[in-house]
Every structure is written in structure tokens, then in C-alpha cells.
Write a structure and sequence with these properties.
Layout: E1 14-18, E2 22-23, H1 29-45, E3 50-53, E4 63-64, H2 67-74, E5 82-89, H3 95-108, E6 113-118, H4 123-128, H5 136-151, E7 156-159, E8 164-168, E9 182-186, H6 189-198, E10 201-204, H7 210-226, E11 236-242, H8 246-267, H9 283-287, E12 292-294, H10 296-310, E13 314-318, H11 326-348
Parallel strand pairs: 1-3, 1-13, 3-5, 5-6, 6-9, 9-10, 11-12, 11-13
Antiparallel strand pairs: 2-4, 7-8
């Protein structure tokens, strides 16, 4: 059966790990892979609920591992954790190829795979795949619909720049019934309405401020209610750095997370967000109500605020960014799992 969670707020808090698959140009990629595998094992040992990674193409100035092959590599280490693509750029993917890869991953994980999909925002990626920018939303919706139909064992018909299907149907189906859960990334109300309409969950981005997300979460639940649906799960992705004290955590995040968001600006990520939630800010203002950074006590308070204001029980943390030494990432994972999560569940249990 497909993994369906109770409505948010009806169970204890759950944490997930968002893997940093980007590395600096001179970084040994095999070393980066070994670090990721160690992080996955640590998260599994600490009882994390899900591990995920994302996708970009031509990700200069970073090198970036492709998500689906990486997920197949980490699947044996994941134990009971769900293994999630968060996200695949479905606009740029062939629906049949993506569906068959999702089936394979669901089989490899024994029915623990989650397929997260997103539209994308980078002009360079659309140009490389010859997707006209003005047609990207329609292409994305067509591809998501086709992948959903194929994974559900139904036939799919569509015609886009990269795919022509006439009643196509998969002969190999996933373990989960009727299919693996589908999460859709969305940054604005139009995209959030789409997620409410066609996906099992809205996958909430790591970039927006909490007040922006609070408004958007209310909008999402109204869109669900208008369609006779309920919010089964609301996964929230956040950047996180947990250290012994606030000052150390802030210094680490500023050194390594600050440059990553400067890269996001150069990629045009800010154009996908509401205009009143900019990213071109001095780091202290950028981090406020956006990143989970501080001592375990500070982070527990921040996460409790997210859980209360967004009515969610699942937060997924990215604890490493290009250049950040492994011991800092592992410390964040351990403090989240050993200190922060038990404290949150003690308070809310």
C-alpha cells in the first residue's frame, strides 16, 4: 500500500535529512559520496523518517550528483527511512523514463520511495533541454499527469517537446499501491494550487520565510478543502546548523550557507518566490525566520514554532553546504536526533 501518514498534528515530530549533493570544483567526488553515505547511516541510526536529495543540471559553480542513481546507492543504508527524490525536474524529464526509474527505486527500496517533482526555474536548464520558457508550466503539468498515470498502472497519452505517448502503459509496476506518494514543489500560490490538485503533498521549499509559509499553508489547506481533500502530510525543508551555542552555529552558517544563497540569486531562485520575500539580504536578515540555526535549545524552539504555525509534524533538514567540513554536518544530525527531537516530542507528547 502507498504510505499514507495521519493528518499533521496527530503524531510525534519526525525529522528528515536533505542531502547536499553539490560540491566545490576541486572537491574529491568520491570523498563527497562517502560523506553522504555516513550521514545517511547516522540519520537512520537516529530514527529519521526520510532522506532525500534534489536535482539541477549545469550547476556551475558546483559539481552535483544526479539524484536517482544516488538514491539507489543509499537505499540499502536507509533501513526503514523513506527514500525521496526531492525533487526531480519533471519538466525536463521524459515521463516514461522517469516513471520506470521511479518503479525501479520503489522496488529497490521495498516500497519506501517517494517521488518529488518540480517545475524548475533556471533559464540555462530550460535552454539546454530546449523547453520554451513560456510553455514550461504546461509541459510540467502534462509530464506530472503522465507519470502519475503510468505509475498507477493506467495508460498515458500526451504530446510535448520531448515526448509523444499514445496509450503508453508500463508492464512493471511499483511495490506501493496504487503508486508511490507524489510530492510537488511549489513556491507561489498558483503552483501550490497545482500541488493541491494533482499531488499527495506539497513539498515546501527551504528558501521562504516562516510568515510567507504560514500564509501559503493556509492557502494550501483551503485549496485541499475545496477539493474535498485533507492534508495528510506537509514536509517542510529547512537549512539547519546546530552547534553548542548560537554564536558558533551562526558563524558556521554564515561562512558556508551564505555563499550558497548568493549562488541561488545568480541562478534566479528569487524570481520563483513572492516579491515580498527577497533573498538579496545581509545574512542576519536572510537567516531570520528562514533558517534553523543555533544551539539545540534555540533550534528546538524554532522547530516548535514551525510545527505550530504550519501544523506540520515533518521537517527535513539540509545540514551541509559546499565546503562545510563533515564533522559539522554530523554534529548537526546527532544534535537534531539525540537532543532536539526527543525534547520536542517530550514537550508535545
Amino acid at each position: 500500500m502507498m504510505s499514507i501518514r495521519p493528518p499533521a498534528g496527530q503524531q510525534t515530530m519526525r525529522f528528515g535529512l536533505f542531502l547536499n549533493t553539490q560540491c566545490l570544483p576541486k572537491r574529491d567526488p568520491l570523498g563527497s559520496l562517502e560523506e553522504l553515505l555516513e550521514q545517511v547511516q547516522e540519520a537512520e541510526d537516529l530514527g529519521f523518517d526520510v532522506v532525500m536529495c534534489g536535482q539541477h543540471f549545469l550547476a556551475h559553480p558546483y559539481g552535483m550528483l544526479a539524484p536517482l542513481p544516488l538514491l539507489s546507492r543509499i537505499a540499502p543504508l536507509g533501513g526503514s527511512m523513506r527514500i525521496a527524490a526531492g525533487i526531480v525536474l519533471a519538466t525536463l524529464a521524459h515521463p516514461v523514463a522517469l516513471a520506470e526509474e521511479a518503479v525501479t527505486l520503489d522496488i529497490l527500496t521495498g516500497g519506501r520511495f517517494v517521488l518529488g517533482m518540480g517545475l524548475g526555474y533556471r533559464d540555462e536548464e530550460f535552454a539546454a533541454f530546449r523547453v520554451p520558457r513560456q510553455r514550461r508550466a504546461k509541459t510540467f503539468e502534462a509530464h506530472v499527469h503522465a507519470v502519475t498515470e503510468l505509475l498507477s498502472g493506467r495508460s498515458a497519452t500526451l504530446s510535448t517537446h520531448s515526448a509523444l505517448l499514445d496509450g503508453a502503459k508500463l508492464s512493471l509496476l511499483p511495490v506501493q499501491e496504487p503508486r508511490p506518494p507524489i510530492w510537488l514543489a511549489a513556491n507561489n500560490e498558483r503552483a501550490i494550487a497545482r500541488a493541491a490538485r494533482v499531488a499527495d503533498s506539497w513539498l515546501v521549499n527551504p528558501h521562504a520565510r516562516l510568515d510567507t509559509l504560514e500564509h501559503q499553508a493556509r492557502f494550501y489547506r483551503k485549496e485541499l478543502a475545496d477539493r474535498g481533500k485533507v492534508c495528510r502530510e506537509l514536509p517542510i525543508v529547512r537549512e539547519a546548523c546546530v552547534a553548542d551555542d548560537d554564536a558558533e552555529a551562526i558563524a558556521i552558517a554564515q561562512e558556508f550557507l551564505g555563499p550558497k544563497y548568493a549562488t541561488y540569486l545568480s541562478w534566479g531562485q528569487h524570481r520563483a518566490l513572492p516579491k515580498d520575500d527577497p533573498l538579496d539580504l545581509e545574512f542576519a536578515n536572510l537567516a531570520r525566520d528562514r533558517f534553523v540555526v543555533g544551539s539545540p535549545e534555540t533550534c528546538a524552539d524554532m522547530i516548535a514554532d514551525y510545527a505550530r504555525r504550519l501544523d506540520t509534524d515533518l521537517l527535513v533538514f539540509r545540514v551541509q553546504w559546499p565546503g562545510l567540513p563533515q564533522h559539522f554536518a554530523l554534529r548537526s544530525i546527532r544534535l537534531l536526533g539525540d537532543v532536539v527531537l526527543p525534547e520536542l516530542n517530550r514537550k508535545t507528547g
